[in-house]
Amino acid sequence: MGLFDFFSKDKDNKEVKESLDKGLEKTKDNFxxxxxxxxxxxxxxxxxxxxxxxxILITSDVGVExxxxxxxxxxxxxxxxxxxxxxxxxxxxxxxxxKLLSENNAQDVxxxxxxxxxxxxxxxxxxVNGVGKxxxxxxxxxxxxxxxxxxxxxxxxTFRAAAVDQLILWGNRVGVPVISHxxxxxxxxxxxxxxxxxxxxxxxxxxxxxxxxxxxKVNLMNELSKIKKVMQKVIPDAPHEILLVLDGSTGQNAxxxxxxxxxxxxxxxxxxxxxxxxxxxGVVIGISDQFxxxxxxxxxxxxxxxxxxxxxxxxxxxxxxxx
Length: 323
Description:
The chain is of the alpha/beta class. It has 13 helices and 8 strands. The protein is about 50% helix and about 10% strand.
């Protein structure tokens, strides 16, 4: 079974697109109302409009560096085309954002999923408390399980009783085993036992929850390194994926967290959650651009299916879809 088969949802499904459109509503309303105001009384895109656009992108949490990159590309196109109206600005902005996401999410999700035949495929999930890390694990487990895969979860966030209990609840709800030693136990030994259990059960995927404390970087690095080393005693190339979960609604804080965790461990996939509750959906563009790590999942609602495989083309289409 290819790893793309892990997910039960078809990315082109009408329901998925509707859910994405709804989840990005606040971002779109905020962005296009500001862009509309910037173009009032303007027959063409001039320096003043571009200054306004720069401010709109920054306040949508696209990030300063990424915003300047987008503005520079648009300025180059304006200088060539000379005359550009509001609808043309929409089109060019859409094209440049799509291009940027394409450059930074070079591995399309489908090829990314089939890139390994590892079994079990081990995912170590990292991120600060409150970003929706354990919920993301539960939703992933549910979708993998629905697609007919054997899943094992490891409750290695042992410093927070709620995290262990929450993962056990998800396991019961989904119908997948959770390896837990309870609270205040060694996270590395939980991870070791979960991977060993995954091998014993001939599981397709093992997902390990880890502590979400942004304490000193040294402690974080040591803890994550230790977890990785003990898993490698069972499967030498584990974990195959280190998934960083970020809360999209925190805007610039998500950038800071991404910086901390990418320094602490080799993050190779991102999940950006809670996009439905915020006007800061631009954070997906900025984080993808600045960290050059593929955005693999986005969360656009409460339902299990609202954790979607990120498809850059569908995302940009939805972002620029006017009511």
